[in-house]
Amino acid sequence: QVQLVESGGGLVQAGGSLRLSCSASGRTASRNAMGWFRQAPGKEREFVAAISWNGRNTVNSASVKGRFTISRDNAKNTVHLQMNSLKPEDTAVYYCAADVARVARVGVPTHLYEYDYWGQGTQVTVSS
């Protein structure tokens, strides 16, 4: 079992920045890929960014490329999402997810079904 807890969400003006954190406890996720997804009201959950187990490979969605950066600190079992130049359309609940079933996998998962564990989410609201 892996427990994921997100933090760092809040209200920010357009153009501002926020840094989300995801803390993993229980069975360690240090050898598993991690990802961030988001879900806006009335919309499906969508991929935002993901990082390989060793941090060497990252993938961002087209909508956040150049503005968001995912990173991880395996010593602290933590994954971060640095969000810059925020836009009102970034408003959503942001979820952290872990691909626990596949250990030290090659590649970076970008689909919801590839992730086994999810956090409860943290709200990000960007005002115009």
Number of strands: 11
Helix vs. strand class:
mainly beta
Q: Helical amount among residues, as a percent range? A: under 10%
Biggest β-sheet strands, sense, barrel: 7 strands, mixed
Strand content: over 45%
Show unreliable segments: none
User: What is the ordering of alpha helices and beta strands?
Assistant: EEEEEEEEEEE
The value of Rg in angstroms is 14 Å
Distance, first to last CA: 40 Å
Mean pLDDT: 95
Shape: globular
Number of helices: 0
Main features:
0% helix; 11 strands; globular; mainly beta
Topology:
Layout: E1 2-7, E2 10-13, E3 18-26, E4 34-39, E5 46-51, E6 58-60, E7 68-73, E8 78-83, E9 92-98, E10 117-118, E11 122-127
Parallel strand pairs: 2-11
Antiparallel strand pairs: 1-3, 3-8, 4-5, 4-9, 5-6, 7-8, 9-10, 9-11
Describe this structure in words.
By secondary structure, this protein is mostly beta strands. It is 0% helix and 48% strand. It is built from no helices and eleven strands. It has strands spanning 2-7, 10-13, 18-26, 34-39, 46-51, 58-60, 68-73, 78-83, 92-98, 117-118, 122-127. The strands form two sheets. Strands 2, 4, 5, 6, 9, 10 and 11 form a seven-stranded mixed beta sheet that branches. A hairpin with a 6-residue loop joins β4 and β5 (46-51). It is globular. It starts with a strand and ends with a strand.
